[in-house]
Design a protein that fits this description.
The complex is a heterodimer of chains A (about 230) and B (about 260).
Chain A (H helix, E strand, L loop, with lengths): L2 H4 L3 H26 L9 H12 L1 H30 L16 H4 L1 H18 L1 H9 L7 H8 L3 H28 L8 H27 L13
Helix pairs in contact in A: 2-4, 2-9, 2-10, 4-6, 6-9, 9-10
Chain B lengths: L4 E10 L8 E11 L4 H14 L22 E2 L2 E2 L21 E5 L8 E3 L2 E2 L2 H8 L21 H11 L6 H5 L6 H12 L8 H14 L10 H5 L7 H15 L6
The chains are: A mainly alpha (about 230), B alpha+beta (about 260).
């Protein structure tokens, strides 16, 4: 089989989902680490430094292109697989097993993924989009910490972010383990460890993401440097 | 357990042939013993239908001792009914109470077309086996079994995979109609043994190619197959099949 054929069989497509998914998991770790700088509560000094590095470093900007390519592949392939799989049972069961034979979130990856995608549209249009636009049009970087502080005072933005992170947690709960199972690592020896780390990851990372908008909304974190009187 | 009799309402899928549009039909059966098997309850119903001059319900069955894999019935939303690691013939009526309503459907997957009522065509599994689920053996005297030492652990794992009876419950239970548990069991039981080793790469790729050609869905690691398998075939076999596939197509050899 050539490369194209190797990735086109049903297992090949699983591998596409697994490998892009693992890349997105790595991205989440970096994203979470950078954002967690706000918890220094220094008026966004450290956060803005980190954001500046991520936004201007050549290597990071190149990897960013790969991130979007993998993200789009993950979304398109995932939705195509969902549609094809659904079409393979034309006559549906009158009575289904429901949660007796499998967890709901494992069966709802396409739905959870779509919710995350909708969240991403809002999220990118609030921060990444305007910032890159400003940079490419020669207006320089935007004050991201101030933007976060302002945006997360709005109740509906907070709710959208919490829902997005909630969907992400359930998506990860299946996706983390599933990615490794597809790579053939779901063996007797490793399955327990992978599932354990997967559960921890699916709780900790979304929780840190959720804490940011909550902290700004609840005024646990101070505003940009000028207002941040220590 | 105390013996008792029960009256039941059955909603059974009736379909004239693979082209026809099926529908549920409701039947009443009475005096069913708690000691009957689920299939014996169907025998009673069919005798009743014959006596009334009606057409009996077509359903698959053969050994009635849980090893042939024929008795494909989707009972109240569960492949082979609610009991763990049980085929329909081994499901007993003591599971049910007087007055219960039971919905019985065929395996539903486009790759398993309904032949009639509850009987489905599982020929797709035969074609997957024909694509590589065997070893090529030269003719002549069989060599002495002890001349091929096999690690006990591997022999046990291979045997556990070989207990797959090809019933299709994995496909029936899978929300994606994936046949990965079946194919992984068939690939595993040969891949673990020295006899299966020479052809392992072509076996994995050919069987997966045939599985895709038959139109089975893609596995998304949901796990409903493992939960419903009457022989307890583990998802670890699917992990092994994934490794076999990766080893076959990414090793750079011409075989893959």
């Amino acid at each position: 089989m050539n490369w194209k054929q190797s990735f086109s069989t049903s297992i090949g497509k699983k591998l596409q989902m697994s490998l892009t998914g693992l890349f997105l998991i790595l991205f989440l770790i970096v994203h979470c680490y950078i954002n967690a700088q706000v918890f220094y509560n220094d008026g966004g000094v450290r956060f803005n430094e980190a954001a500046h590095f991520m936004g201007t470093n050549f290597v990071i900007r190149t990897v960013e292109l790969g991130l979007f390519a993998f993200l789009i592949l993950h979304i398109v392939q995932g939705l195509l697989l969902w549609a094809k799989n659904r079409a393979r049972r034309t006559v549906k069961y009158a009575v289904s097993a429901g949660n007796k034979t499998s967890p709901w979130y494992s069966r709802s990856m396409a739905l959870l993924g779509t919710l995350i995608l909708l969240f991403l549209v809002v999220h990118l249009s609030k921060f990444w989009g305007p910032n890159r636009l400003s940079m490419t049009t020669g207006h320089g970087e935007l004050p991201l910490y101030k933007m976060m502080y302002d945006e997360f005072q709005i109740t509906w933005v907070l709710i959208v972010y919490l829902l997005g992170v909630f969907a992400l947690a359930w998506h990860l709960l299946h996706g983390f383990y599933s990615a490794f199972q597809t790579l053939g690592l779901g063996t007797h020896k490793y399955k327990g460890i992978i599932k354990g780390i997967g559960v921890a990851f699916s709780i900790i990372v979304p929780l840190i993401f959720a804490l940011m908008p909550i902290a700004f909304y609840m005024h646990w974190l101070c505003g940009p440097v000028a207002d941040c009187v220590k | 357990m105390q013996h008792y009799n029960m009256n039941l309402t059955l909603k059974v899928w009736k379909q004239k042939n693979s082209k026809a549009k099926g529908a549920f039909e409701t039947y009443k059966v009475s005096g069913i013993s708690s000691e009957m098997s689920f299939l014996e309850m169907f025998d009673v119903l069919n005798e009743q239908l014959v006596a009334e001059g009606k057409e009996p319900i077509a359903f698959d069955h053969d050994c009635r001792e849980g090893i042939c894999g024929m008795c494909s019935m989707y009972i109240n939303g569960r492949a082979h009914g609610p009991w763990h690691q049980t085929t329909t013939c081994q499901l007993h009526m003591r599971e049910y109470k007087d007055g219960d309503t039971i919905v019985v459907e065929p395996w539903r997957a486009n790759s398993f077309p309904v032949i009639k009522d509850l009987v489905v065509d599982r020929g797709a599994f035969d074609r997957i086996i024909a694509a590589g689920g065997y070893i090529s053996v030269n003719t002549g005297n069989a060599q002495d079994a002890n001349s091929l030492p096999i690690d006990k652990q591997k022999a046990d794992e291979s045997f556990a995979a070989a207990t797959c009876i090809g019933c299709g419950a994995c496909v029936a239970a899978c929300p994606n109609t994936s046949a990965m548990l079946f194919v992984s069991a068939k690939v595993s039981h040969l891949a673990l043994l020295p006899q299966g080793d020479p052809e392992r790469k072509t076996r994995a790729t050919n069987m997966i190619h045939q599985m895709d050609t038959e139109g089975f869905g893609s596995c998304t690691n949901i796990g409903a197959c493992e939960a419903e398998c009457p022989k307890g075939i583990s998802l670890e076999n699917i992990a092994r099949l994934n490794r076999e596939y990766i080893g076959a197509v990414f090793s750079g050899s011409a075989e893959g």
